[in-house]
């Protein structure tokens, strides 16, 4: 019985998620290639540049990780970023202190995310359909608020996207904070455990008396909140809200999560894995820009990455399992 | 029935020295046996003994590592389709039918290809299905949509589909697991008439009575090796069990101590779509068995008490009414429910075993309690304690995923997860279905011990012996009604069957 007491190190869930995704080493090889082709790629200033560019993706992908862990999906992420941006520029918030205005917008996103969750958990519509509908609603609302024009964001509302802490760009600091918080919630809290339990086996979660509906609504609301934060960083960096803001962004976000080893069928994955996936995508995008590739190349790469990530996921684990089974050559009795 | 001498005729199917390993772990070791023409051979063994591997090799799904399989004296074909063309048909336990097609289309699906396009006439298919459906005792239209049928009826369609393939060798894997008594009877008749037509039949079943009722010879596997190949008449139940387990079983069921007089659970007038006006009382320290045929409403009682279905009527735990009824309220009142389908509804297969053990009582593991931050040290300690108390054998430790456990150990984990909540009423639905005899005995011992400690247990089971061996009293259900509660000393199999099938005592 002594074996039973054995436990693995803290990082095992992350390791399991990452090790299920063979594209990660492939991405590292690609990055090394960029370094060879383009000397500027491996410079310190470019690293800071990538960190800033990646921060919005990192935040939104952390949100998406929670949603996908419940075996759900959120297609409304890009549209919600646009709507949040539109709200930031709207006249209703002009009279408020900037910090309060941003908090209100973030809370508003949490409520909108909660509505997604309500549709999924209470009405029982598939997440893909609910968020496909809200994608259109959010984008329509945003377009209505901005009048489909490019709107300049006031300087005092841009602080989330500018400035730095001890030389590190503030957006990246925010992203790292969100990732640490997300990891903590997922690994250490009852809520996080319930998220994984529901994604792993929803009927079992129901039978165990878990508050399945509340947790699902909570997940989508939490995702909305984080997407709201991502939106503030984004409009802070850009300084303007354009009609195309966030358009198609949900696809990059989902790709980052899947690349990070989170299973689309739910229950298995990690925020740290997502971070690695998102960073690799951001670095590849940056590298493609530096070597002068067309912007459409990144679309092709992203699509190919998503498809092959799905096809290849789990293969290293299977190999490991086979190796382990071979090394323990004698079958043991299943009974004591 | 005429006795056929194997040595004079080429057997329908013969296995010669078959071995198969998975990732270096042998699943089947040097197994040889033959199925004669017009013979029913039963394949018996505990879970993990190698039955499924042999079934899959006969069906062509797996290739043996060494040894040969002969079909009527000739080499077995190398593909599933080739094996099927040799008239070797397998009825798998996992049903492989299409829910949106009609019964007739499902039965003939394998012979539809190769016909002229647009040449499928549903009416003709239906007409051709009538006789085979009658043969398996199915009382539904061939034009019914498969998805509308019950599990038992679906199983009959699966068997009908096997029959129209004109089999020379038929492998039946647990064909009666979800059938009612009547349906079982029809399937047995169909098997008998196939035997008389000269089909060689391999019959895999957990139900030892069925094995004795149906087979001519019994092949026993243990840990992948063949331990006996004997005519049925040379075996009895006890000797077969001993062969399967490899040791004499401790004499049957553990002793159960008398219950107290305190009412732990009282149910009155419980009614929903399936059950009507069910009332009973369960005392502290008592095990109340719930018996009845498939579909009699046994599971529905449990689901209604636990708040998983909409039901009227009153449920009280130690005098406190459960209201409103929801799983959360039931758990708070001290009710625990081990569901019938542990893989799909009980355990987290792709998560560490520790997480299944702690999930119900997770709220109590907060540090500080209100924060919702899990105290991992305590979680780990409790999981280990519970696993040891339940005698869970987890080769990969508790951080391995649930899927790595055997069926019996999965069930122990599911029961253990509920014991974490220190329940006062425990409801178990088919707790020993599909688990091997050794693990069964351990679960029986555990239930007896829990009852002695004062837990009130509602034990739902299709196995009459289990009900009779483990219960203080037995409630019998039929068509959604509770027909009567018998004392243990009063009850026997005949009485239970008579009540369950609508007879009078």
Name a few traits of the molecule.
heterodimer, A: 336 residues, ABC transporter involved in vitamin B12 uptake, BtuC, two-stranded antiparallel ribbon, 4 strands, globular, disordered N terminus, B: 505 residues, alpha/beta, six-stranded mixed beta sheet, 23% strand
Describe the structure.
- The complex is a heterodimer of chains A (336) and B (505).
- Chain A is an all-alpha fold and 336 residues long.
- Helices cover 69% and strands 2% of the residues of chain A.
- Chain A has one domain (14-326): ABC transporter involved in vitamin B12 uptake, BtuC (Orthogonal Bundle).
- In chain A, the strands form 2 sheets. Chain A has a two-stranded antiparallel sheet. Chain A has a two-stranded antiparallel sheet with strand order 2-3.
- Chain B has 505 residues and is an alpha/beta fold.
- Helices cover 32% and strands 23% of the residues of chain B.
- In chain B, strands 6-7-8-3-9-10 form a 6-stranded mixed beta sheet, sandwiched between helices. In chain B, strands 16-17-18-13-19-20 form a 6-stranded mixed beta sheet, with helices on both faces. A 4-stranded antiparallel beta sheet of chain B has the order 2-1-4-5, with helices on one face.
- The longest helix of chain B has 16 residues, at 181-196.
Structure described in brief:
The complex is a heterodimer of chains A (336) and B (505). Chain A has helices spanning 12-19, 23-37, 44-69, 77-89, 98-123, 127-146, 170-188, 190-200, 202-207, 212-238, 249-259, 271-290, 295-312, 315-327, and strands at residues 151-152, 164-165, 168-169, 240-241.
Task: Give the arrangement of secondary structure elements.
The complex is a heterodimer of chains A (336) and B (505).
Chain A: H1 12-19, H2 23-37, H3 44-69, H4 77-89, H5 98-123, H6 127-146, E1 151-152, E2 164-165, E3 168-169, H7 170-188, H8 190-200, H9 202-207, H10 212-238, E4 240-241, H11 249-259, H12 271-290, H13 295-312, H14 315-327
Antiparallel strand pairs in A: 1-4, 2-3
Helix pairs in contact in A: 1-12, 2-12, 3-7, 3-10, 3-11, 3-12, 4-5, 4-6, 4-10, 5-6, 5-10, 7-8, 8-10, 11-12, 11-13, 12-13
Chain B: E1 13-22, E2 25-35, E3 40-44, H1 51-58, E4 66-71, E5 74-75, H2 80-85, E6 88-91, H3 103-108, H4 122-135, H5 151-164, E7 169-173, H6 181-196, E8 200-204, H7 208-214, E9 217-222, E10 225-231, H8 237-245, E11 263-271, E12 278-283, E13 287-292, H9 298-305, E14 312-317, E15 320-321, H10 327-332, E16 335-338, H11 342-345, H12 353-358, H13 376-389, H14 407-419, E17 425-429, H15 437-452, E18 456-460, H16 464-470, E19 473-478, E20 481-487, H17 493-500
Parallel strand pairs in B: 3-8, 3-9, 6-7, 7-8, 13-18, 13-19, 16-17, 17-18
Antiparallel strand pairs in B: 1-2, 1-4, 4-5, 9-10, 11-12, 11-14, 14-15, 19-20
């Amino acid at each position: 019985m002594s074996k039973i007491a054995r436990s693995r190190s803290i990082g095992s869930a992350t390791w399991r998620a990452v090790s299920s995704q063979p594209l990660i080493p492939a991405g590292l090889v690609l990055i090394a290639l960029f370094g060879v082709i383009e000397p500027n790629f491996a410079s310190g200033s470019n690293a800071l540049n990538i960190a800033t560019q990646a921060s919005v993706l990192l935040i939104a992908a952390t949100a998406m990780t929670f949603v996908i862990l419940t075996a759900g999906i959120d297609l409304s992420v890009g549209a919600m970023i646009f709507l949040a941006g539109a709200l930031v520029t709207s006249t209703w918030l002009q009279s408020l202190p900037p910090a309060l205005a941003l908090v209100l917008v973030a809370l508003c996103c949490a409520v909108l995310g909660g509505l997604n969750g309500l549709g999924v958990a209470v009405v029982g519509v598939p997440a893909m359909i609910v968020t496909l509908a809200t994608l259109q609603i959010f984008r329509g609302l945003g377009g209505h608020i901005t009048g489909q024009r490019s709107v300049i964001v006031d300087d005092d509302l841009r602080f989330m996207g500018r400035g730095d802490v001890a030389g590190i760009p503030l957006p990246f600091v925010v992203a790292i904070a969100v990732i640490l918080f997300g990891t903590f919630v997922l690994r250490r809290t009852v809520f996080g455990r319930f998220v994984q339990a529901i994604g792993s086996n929803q009927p079992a979660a129901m039978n165990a008396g878990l508050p399945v509906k509340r947790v699902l609504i909570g997940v989508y609301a939490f995702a909305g909140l984080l997407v709201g934060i991502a939106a503030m960083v984004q409009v802070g960096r850009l300084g303007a809200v354009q009609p195309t803001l966030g358009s198609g962004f949900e696809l990059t976000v989902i790709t980052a999560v899947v690349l990070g080893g989170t299973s689309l069928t739910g229950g298995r994955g990690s925020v740290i894995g997502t971070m690695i996936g998102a960073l690799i995508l951001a670095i590849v995008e940056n590298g493609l820009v530096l070597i002068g590739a067309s912007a459409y190349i990144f679309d092709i790469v992203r699509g190919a990455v998503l498809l092959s990530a799905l096809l290849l996921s789990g293969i290293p684990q299977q190999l490991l399992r086979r190796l382990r089974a071979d090394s323990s050559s004698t079958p043991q009795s299943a009974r004591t | 029935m005429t006795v056929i001498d194997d040595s004079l005729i080429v057997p329908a199917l013969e296995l010669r020295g078959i071995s198969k390993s998975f990732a270096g772990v042998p699943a089947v070791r040097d197994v040889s046996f033959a199925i004669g023409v017009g013979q029913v051979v039963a394949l018996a063994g505990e879970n993990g003994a190698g039955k499924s591997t042999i079934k899959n090799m006969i069906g062509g799904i797996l290739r043996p590592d060494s040894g040969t399989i002969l079909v009527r004296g000739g080499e077995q074909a190398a593909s599933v389709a080739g094996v099927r063309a040799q008239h070797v048909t397998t009825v798998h336990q996992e049903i492989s039918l299409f829910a949106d097609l009609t019964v007739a289309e499902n039965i003939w699906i394998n012979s539809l290809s190769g016909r002229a396009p647009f040449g499928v006439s549903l009416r003709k298919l239906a007409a051709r299905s009538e006789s085979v459906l009658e043969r398996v005792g199915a009382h539904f239209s061939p034009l019914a949509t498969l998805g509308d049928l019950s599990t038992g009826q679906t199983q009959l369609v699966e068997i009908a589909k096997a029959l129209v393939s004109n089999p020379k060798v038929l492998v039946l894997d647990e064909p009666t697991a979800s059938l009612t008594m009547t349906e079982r009877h029809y399937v047995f008749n169909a098997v008998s008439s196939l035997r008389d037509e000269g089909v060689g039949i391999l019959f895999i079943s957990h139900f030892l009575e069925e094995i004795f009722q149906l087979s001519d010879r019994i092949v026993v596997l243990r840990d992948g090796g063949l331990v006996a190949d004997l005519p049925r008449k040379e075996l009895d139940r006890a000797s077969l069990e001993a062969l399967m387990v490899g040791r004499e079983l401790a004499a049957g069921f553990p002793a159960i101590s008398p219950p107290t007089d305190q009412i732990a659970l009282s149910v009155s007038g419980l009614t929903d779509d399936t059950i009507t006006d069910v009332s009973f009382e369960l005392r502290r320290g008592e095990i109340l068995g719930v018996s009845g045929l498939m579909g009699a409403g046994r599971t529905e009682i449990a689901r209604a008490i636990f708040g998983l279905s909409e039901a009227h009527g009153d449920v009280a735990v130690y005098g406190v009414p459960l209201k409103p009824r929801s799983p959360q309220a039931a758990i708070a009142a001290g009710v625990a429910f081990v569901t019938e389908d542990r893989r799909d509804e009980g355990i987290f297969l792709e998560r560490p075993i520790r997480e299944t053990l702690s999930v119900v009582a997770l709220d109590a593991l907060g540090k500080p309690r209100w924060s919702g931050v899990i105290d991992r040290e305590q979680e780990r300690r409790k999981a280990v304690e519970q696993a040891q108390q339940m005698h869970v054998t987890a080769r990969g430790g508790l951080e391995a995923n649930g899927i790595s456990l055997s069926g019996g150990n999965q069930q122990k984990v599911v029961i253990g997860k509920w014991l974490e909540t220190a329940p006062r009423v425990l409801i178990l639905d088919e707790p020993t279905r599909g688990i091997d005899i050794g693990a069964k005995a351990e679960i029986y011992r555990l239930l007896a011990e829990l009852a002695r400690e004062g837990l009130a247990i509602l034990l739902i089971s299709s196995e009459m012996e289990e009900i009779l061996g483990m219960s203080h009293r037995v409630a019998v259900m039929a068509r959604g009604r509770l027909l009567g509660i018998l004392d243990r000393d009063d009850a026997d199999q005949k009485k239970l069957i008579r009540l369950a099938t609508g007879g009078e005592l």
